[in-house]
Amino acid sequence: MALTPFHLAIQVRDIDEARDFYGSKMGLAEGRSAEHWVDWDFFGHQVVTHLNPAIGRDGKVAAIANHVDGHGVPVPHFGVVLEFEQWRAFAERARSFVDEFVIEPYIRFAGQPGEQGTMFFLDPSGNALEFKGFRDIHSELFAK
């Protein structure tokens, strides 16, 4: 089955702050927008940041952490799966705009089925993002 772009809408505490993070820092192209939302080209997928003033300027969206491979993985989270070299290059670039990683870039499940590069960081509103990298996405993404 051919993959098709996903659509995801997330809440943010400040639209200008989201524009700075997703547009200026992450380098995502901005699509349609209005006063309270912005569409982003998220590696070919559509992510929309919607203003939620109830979060408050200093607030963050709620999250928990679950144990995976020795790390506390934030839930909920979203992200994208990349080819390994693309992931590695993005991990290096992310170090220039991420002040603090939730999980630093590393190889998860090393030497096991599903081995992958992964990293987690938060946007300014507390939305957790994960970026994964596989050497062979089609055989490794769902490997048991």
From TrEMBL:
Residue span(s) of domain VOC: 4-134
PROSITE patterns: VOC (PS51819)
InterPro entries to which the protein is assigned, alphabetical: Glyas_Bleomycin-R_OHBP_Dase, Glyas_Fos-R_dOase_dom, VOC_core
Pfam families: Glyoxalase
Domain of life, per lineage: Bacteria
PANTHER family in the cross-refs: PTHR39434, VOC DOMAIN-CONTAINING PROTEIN
The protein's name in its UniProt record: VOC domain-containing protein
Organism encoding this protein: Microbulbifer marinus
